[in-house]
Design a protein that fits this description.
The complex is a heterodimer of chains A (about 240) and B (about 400). Chain A has about 240 residues and is mainly α. Chain A contains nine helices and one strand; from the N terminus they run H-E-H-H-H-H-H-H-H-H. Helices cover about 40% and strands about 0% of the residues of chain A. In chain B, the strands form eight sheets. In chain B, strands 22, 23, 24, 25 and 26 form a five-stranded antiparallel beta sheet that branches. The relative contact order of chain B is 0.11. The chains are: A mainly alpha (about 240), B mainly beta (about 400). Strand 1 of chain A pairs parallel with strand 2 of chain B.
Chain lengths: ~240, ~400
């Protein structure tokens, strides 16, 4: 079975009254592995309207020495062989994927083995090199506390590596992935000031959000940055760059 | 197979058509081949060989795990994470199981966000729905789940393995000063264990019961009557599950019961004896064990005072002796269940905060689950039922609060 999108072209042709026929579509045949690769990098792994996030938003597929971003999730190469996921909280790969799709990509319909998209994703993940087959540490900071002052210049680097992909430029949002991700820090500060948070509390709000993401009662679709993904020192530098003193 | 159209060529095409129908391009359509490899997402969980003798099961609510123990060989068969949230504590609080059908049922009591210490800890609601998760005993894989009310407290299974009953120890509801008596009362959830699936499980039947019910016992073998330790009303609450409205009956533990939500006795745990004729009621505020007569539906006169707060007891096979775990001081109190006289008190080395006692099938051994310090591992102790010598100590997950000792089916 195949399907395609003609809507835009047909509509435009109809409106213009043009009889020109664009011709038969060019068919490109791809494998299930390629399908999975596409899903990995495309928001269509979630059927939720408005979702802008893909697996690749948070995960590298394979080790990449040239990569500069800080990814909250682990490298995917070897994932099919790991004994556990989410820092040991999950033992099943598909449950783990579905957790990502639910919490970050807002899709509450779980994939099941045999589903076309689930199987394509498995095909792709299986095709990756078996490089990281051991459980990947993922230490979530449950009890957050304030941090010592960091370095502002170093914090810019952290921002660019960890935040800019989703949130865009600091206080501008330029290039942000989705308007669901607030422009930081200004939108978040404004929101919490309206809620009566003090300056000191606002600083810890950022720590809390970065460490907990949408979990532990916070809500939202942001992933938590574990201690392995972002050290306390890097986080302190980031706070300095955001001018949260 | 699936296909996608590449967005850019289509958009370009549309623009060109609108501009004057010149330079039309064919769109590109991708057709994917179906996956045709080995079965996807193979089950990689370790399987646990069910022991020939008693199987021990603990719910470890501080570490989100369930632990299985071969109580005869002393081997830890395995420990596996349970729950639905990959980050937060799912709070597996008490567990019931049926070896014949091969399933365990764990109550997930999600904590208030106050577990986190950030500024948002005080934000929003601290009332989070509880869940019951059905697990395969073979590998502890979740195979079904259903939402229940917040703060599930105890979970029990009927003798035929078909009826699950869950209490809700909802102190937030109990302590709401603006609530009426009925609003302070929580429900029991009654669940058809066989219908639980990962999606589409039927909603449980909810029966409003009393303020902060915790420990539960089900009549045997029919599972018709529920006996609930009603902490917030100083009573035993009896529910007839065959009655359309539950025919809820409230029986005070004694004189001087506290006002609703502020108990004088604080009944926390109940255990039905082997004959089914009486229920031991452990009260953590008054620090004693009393007995409820299931035939007359009255409290009898037997009273066992305990120095520490008593929790889930075990009866000897003839129901004449009762083994009571107490906390502060941590001990096992042995008493005559007919007269109430205390036979002995035993401090167990290596047991911090004993929560429940279970007896081995051979009656020679008692198993005691010890909460520990709620930070590091808890423990299950195998104790000689006569000498109270500790024979074995098994580390389990954090903050275990139930020990099941199940004979083979």
């Amino acid at each position: 079975m195949k399907k395609t999108v003609f809507a835009i072209a047909l509509c435009a042709a109809s409106l213009s009254g043009c009889a020109s026929d664009p011709g038969d579509p060019t068919i490109v045949n791809e494998t299930a592995v390629e399908h999975g690769a596409f899903l990995f990098s495309d928001p269509s792994a979630s059927a939720a309207p408005g979702n802008a996030f893909a697996c690749a938003t948070c995960h590298l597929a394979t080790d990449d020495a040239a990569a500069t971003r800080i990814y909250p999730g682990a490298v995917m190469a070897g994932v099919v062989s790991r004994p556990s996921y989410w820092g040991g909280e999950e033992l099943d790969l598909l449950r783990s994927i579905n957790a990502c799709r639910f919490y970050f990509m807002s899709d509450s319909k779980a994939w099941e083995p045999g589903d076309e998209l689930a199987d394509a994703m498995y095909a792709y993940l299986t095709s990756l090199p078996a490089e990281h087959v051991d459980a990947v540490p993922f230490s979530v900071v449950q009890a957050v506390a304030d941090l010592p002052a960091g370095d502002k210049a170093a914090g810019k680097t952290v921002y660019d590596r960890a935040c800019a992909t989703c949130h865009g430029g600091m206080n501008t949002g330029t290039g942000r992935l989705t308007t669901v991700a607030p422009i930081i820090p200004k939108e978040t500060l404004a929101e919490h000031a309206a809620d009566g948070f003090t300056d000191d509390q606002q600083r810890v709000v950022f720590i809390e959000k970065i460490r907990h993401g949408g979990f532990l009662g916070y809500g939202g679709t942001m992933p938590p940055f574990s201690l392995e993904a972002m050290s306390d020192a890097e986080l302190a530098d980031l706070l300095a760059y955001l001018e949260l003193y | 197979m699936n296909a996608r159209a590449l967005a850019l060529p289509v958009c370009a095409l549309a623009a060109l058509v609108v501009a004057g129908c010149s330079g039309a391009e064919a769109e590109t359509e991708v057709v994917y081949a179906a996956y045709d490899g080995p079965p996807t997402y193979p089950d990689q969980r370790p399987n646990f060989a069910m022991p020939a003798g008693d199987l021990g099961i603990t719910s470890d609510n501080g570490s989100d795990t369930v632990t299985l123990i071969d109580l005869t060989s002393g081997d830890i068969l395995g420990e596996a994470p349970v729950g639905r949230d990959p980050v937060d504590n799912d709070g597996p609080h008490h567990i019931a199981a049926d070896r014949k059908s091969g399933f365990a049922y764990v109550a997930l009591a999600y904590p208030a966000p106050a577990i986190a210490t950030g500024p948002h800890a005080s934000h929003g609601s601290s009332v989070r729905s509880g869940w019951v998760q059905k697990l395969s005993l073979t590998n502890l894989m979740p195979v079904g789940e259903v939402r229940v009310d917040p703060n599930p407290g105890d979970i029990v299974l009927s003798q035929d393995g078909k009826r699950l009953v869950v209490s809700h120890f909802d102190l937030a509801r109990a302590l709401n000063p603006a609530a009426t008596l009925e609003e302070k009362r929580s429900t029991l959830a009654v669940i058809d264990a066989e219908t639980l699936a990962m999606t589409g499980s039927p909603e449980p039947r909810f029966i409003t019961t009393c303020i902060a019910p915790h420990g539960l016992a089900l009549s045997r073998p029919d599972g018709r009557f529920v006996y609930a330790a009603c902490y917030g009303e100083d009573e035993v609450t009896v529910v007839d599950l065959d009655a359309a409205d539950g025919a809820v009956e409230h029986i005070k533990l004694g004189p001087g019961a506290g006002p609703p939500g502020n108990p004088s006795y604080g009944p926390y745990a109940v255990v039905l004896d082997h004959s089914g004729s009486k229920v031991a009621v452990s009260s953590t505020e008054s620090r004693d064990v009393r007995f409820f007569d299931t035939a007359t539906k009255t409290m009898d006169a037997t009273l066992i005072p305990t120095q520490g707060a008593p929790y889930f007891v075990a009866f000897s096979p003839d129901d004449k002796t009762i083994y009571i775990p107490t906390q502060s001081p941590d001990a096992i109190v042995v008493a005559n269940a007919e007269t109430g006289s205390v036979i002995g008190t035993h401090m167990l080395a290596g047991c911090v905060a004993p929560h429940e006692v279970a007896m081995a099938t051979d009656t020679a051994t008692l198993y005691v689950v010890c909460e520990g310090d709620h930070v590091g591992p808890g423990a299950v102790l195998a104790v000689d039922a006569t000498s109270f010598e500790v024979r074995s100590t098994w580390p389990v997950g954090v903050y275990p609060d139930r020990i099941l000792a199940l004979p083979p089916p």
